Amino acid sequence: MSLTRSDFDQYMVPNYAPAAFVPVRGAGSRVWDQNDKEYIDLAGGIAVNSLGHCHPVLVNALTEQANKLWHVSNVFTNEPALALAKKLVEATFADKVFFCNSGAEANEAALKLARRAAIERFGEQKHQVLSTLNSFHGRTFFTVTVGGQPKYSDGFGPKPQGIEYFEYNNLDSLKALINDNTACVVVEPIQGEGGVLPADPAFLQGVRELCDKHNAFLIFDEVQTGMGRTGSLFAYQEYGVVPDILSSAKSLGGGFPIGAMLTTADIAKHLVAGTHGTTYGGNPLGCAVAGAVLDVINTPEVLAGVRAKHQQIKAGVEALNAKYGVFKEVRGMGLLMGCVLADQYKDRAKDVLNAAAAQGLMVLMAGTNVVRFAPSLVISDEEITTALARLDLALAAFVA
């Protein structure tokens, strides 16, 4: 069967606008398209491919499980889910884990749990959800409304109520909204889609203290920052601020769809049997792969490597920027990095992305003004060097 990019326009709902080339295979941090052109992948499937493409440990875990058991539903439990839950509990603040299929579902579960626990403890009035402007928490109607970007939530009719927004990294903005009817505050330790903007440590600590003062639950959305992305297994460990509930997905499965909500036993007891569920969540295939991902990532060597690779990429981009003057800031943490375009190139991130693709380099955008990198956590030094050389050519073409 001969398939091309034009088949997308013919058969697919037009809610995406994918690149002109079609990737067909990958190995490590390299991808090849239908014409066998090679690309270095700094996009990482939007921070999903934590161990690159077709990592042998993950291929083996998936293949072994595929020959044993695929799906039994949550009428029954399964060994890979139990093993993964145990590993996550032992590696984090959490006592309990709920598995689902995506980051949006993990956040949906976190928000439902926070509201239910708050209402059961304090009464129906305690349901307010506070979130940051320009945040992103998923595409379900609840999570997309909680995400403080109206461009994603407008146009679908009446929105879920009881949600208000404060400014990221502005504690006074939160103080003006939080009260004893606040059920939860949800924060990304690094705003991902909002432009790869890290939280100030004092801000996160202040949010924690305000939540404690008002008996509100603190939810950290670590869908994009979790699983080694920042150089710690989860970003909350990097900051030393512990949430009550944490959402994970993306890198957790290394490319296989899986999400998880982590919390304490005291909070988890509010989701009794029948209060929440998912057909596919915690399936043996996803959990087997995620267990293998966790085993590889949660080692001193890999986590230290993330920090070292951050410095290598940052130094390389800054050297290129001294040459071209395209960026006014390179920010982020670990291998979640954002290059903010200089004022003269404002809102042209898509042009940089296209110029990079022409040179065999896959990068991302975070809004229209930030070029984002979220590569494999085990990308090689050689691949980084090659990526920077291709970025050099792309920026030369971009400014020409």
From TrEMBL:
<feature type="binding site">
    <location>
        <begin position="103"/>
        <end position="104"/>
    </location>
    <ligand>
        <name>pyridoxal 5'-phosphate</name>
    </ligand>
</feature>
<dbReference type="GO" id="GO:0042802">
    <property type="term" value="F:identical protein binding"/>
</dbReference>
<comment type="pathway">
    <text>Amine and polyamine biosynthesis; ectoine biosynthesis; L-ectoine from L-aspartate 4-semialdehyde: step 1/3.</text>
</comment>
<dbReference type="InterPro" id="IPR049704">
    <property type="entry name" value="Aminotrans_3_PPA_site"/>
</dbReference>
<dbReference type="Pfam" id="PF00202">
    <property type="entry name" value="Aminotran_3"/>
</dbReference>
<protein>
    <recommendedName>
        <fullName>Acetylornithine aminotransferase</fullName>
        <ecNumber>2.6.1.11</ecNumber>
    </recommendedName>
</protein>
<dbReference type="InterPro" id="IPR004636">
    <property type="entry name" value="AcOrn/SuccOrn_fam"/>
</dbReference>
<comment type="pathway">
    <text>Amino-acid biosynthesis; L-arginine biosynthesis; N(2)-acetyl-L-ornithine from L-glutamate: step 4/4.</text>
</comment>
<dbReference type="InterPro" id="IPR050103">
    <property type="entry name" value="Class-III_PLP-dep_AT"/>
</dbReference>
<keyword id="KW-0963">Cytoplasm</keyword>
<feature type="binding site">
    <location>
        <begin position="221"/>
        <end position="224"/>
    </location>
    <ligand>
        <name>pyridoxal 5'-phosphate</name>
    </ligand>
</feature>
<dbReference type="InterPro" id="IPR015421">
    <property type="entry name" value="PyrdxlP-dep_Trfase_major"/>
</dbReference>
<dbReference type="InterPro" id="IPR015422">
    <property type="entry name" value="PyrdxlP-dep_Trfase_small"/>
</dbReference>
<dbReference type="GO" id="GO:0006526">
    <property type="term" value="P:L-arginine biosynthetic process"/>
</dbReference>
<feature type="binding site">
    <location>
        <position position="279"/>
    </location>
    <ligand>
        <name>pyridoxal 5'-phosphate</name>
    </ligand>
</feature>
<dbReference type="InterPro" id="IPR005814">
    <property type="entry name" value="Aminotrans_3"/>
</dbReference>
<dbReference type="InterPro" id="IPR017652">
    <property type="entry name" value="Ac/SucOrn_transaminase_bac"/>
</dbReference>
<keyword id="KW-0663">Pyridoxal phosphate</keyword>
<comment type="similarity">
    <text>Belongs to the class-III pyridoxal-phosphate-dependent aminotransferase family. ArgD subfamily.</text>
</comment>
<dbReference type="GO" id="GO:0005737">
    <property type="term" value="C:cytoplasm"/>
</dbReference>
<keyword id="KW-0032">Aminotransferase</keyword>
<keyword id="KW-0028">Amino-acid biosynthesis</keyword>
<keyword id="KW-0808">Transferase</keyword>
<dbReference type="GO" id="GO:0030170">
    <property type="term" value="F:pyridoxal phosphate binding"/>
</dbReference>
<dbReference type="GO" id="GO:0003992">
    <property type="term" value="F:N2-acetyl-L-ornithine:2-oxoglutarate 5-aminotransferase activity"/>
</dbReference>
<feature type="binding site">
    <location>
        <position position="278"/>
    </location>
    <ligand>
        <name>N(2)-acetyl-L-ornithine</name>
    </ligand>
</feature>
<dbReference type="GO" id="GO:0045303">
    <property type="term" value="F:diaminobutyrate-2-oxoglutarate transaminase activity"/>
</dbReference>
<feature type="binding site">
    <location>
        <position position="136"/>
    </location>
    <ligand>
        <name>pyridoxal 5'-phosphate</name>
    </ligand>
</feature>
<keyword id="KW-0055">Arginine biosynthesis</keyword>
<feature type="binding site">
    <location>
        <position position="139"/>
    </location>
    <ligand>
        <name>N(2)-acetyl-L-ornithine</name>
    </ligand>
</feature>
<dbReference type="InterPro" id="IPR015424">
    <property type="entry name" value="PyrdxlP-dep_Trfase"/>
</dbReference>
<comment type="subunit">
    <text>Homodimer.</text>
</comment>
<feature type="modified residue" description="N6-(pyridoxal phosphate)lysine">
    <location>
        <position position="250"/>
    </location>
</feature>
